Amino acid sequence: MRAVLQRVSRASVSVEGEVKGEIGAGLLILVCAMQGDEAAKADQLAAKIAKMRIFKDDAGKMNLSVRDIGGAALIVSQFTLAADLRGNRPGFSTAAPPEEGKRLYEHFTAAMQAEGIPTANGIFGADMDVSLNNDGPVTIWMDL
Q1: What are the structural domains of the chain?
Q2: pTM value?
Q3: Is residue 86's pLDDT more than 90?
Q4: Catalytic: which of 6, 35, 55, 80?
Q5: Fewer C-beta neighbours within 10 Å, C or N terminus of the chain?
Q6: CB neighbours of 109 closer than 8 A, spacing ≥ 6?
Q7: 34 pLDDT above the threshold of 90
Q8: Any catalytic annotation for residue 79?
């Protein structure tokens, strides 16, 4: 699975002008299931993200996790993270098929909740408008 994490002071996702998910401080997580990914990978990704120390402590050092700060996660499906950029027009054939991608996206969300992280979501496969205030900025790319 692939993910892009953005440390945010707030974030939201809207579909057709209606807010579908929003959080305060925490992480905006853009996530993509790749062909061959299994539920265990989604679990592994959630566990790693929940423990990742990318939030500032009282000394201003990145020593705290999203769990430590009582933050939340806005999880947005993003199949374009699978982009193959060999030519001028990206290809996405390495992304999991939509049905499998949706299953793993939902499994990942449940795994984040099981890690004790409150979650909000976009709508899988929808044309979404994502808004965020990147804190730092801190943006991290992950590929498990």
Answers
A1: 2-143 (3.50.80.10)
A2: 0.95
A3: no
A4: 80
A5: C
A6: 75, 119, 121
A7: yes
A8: yes
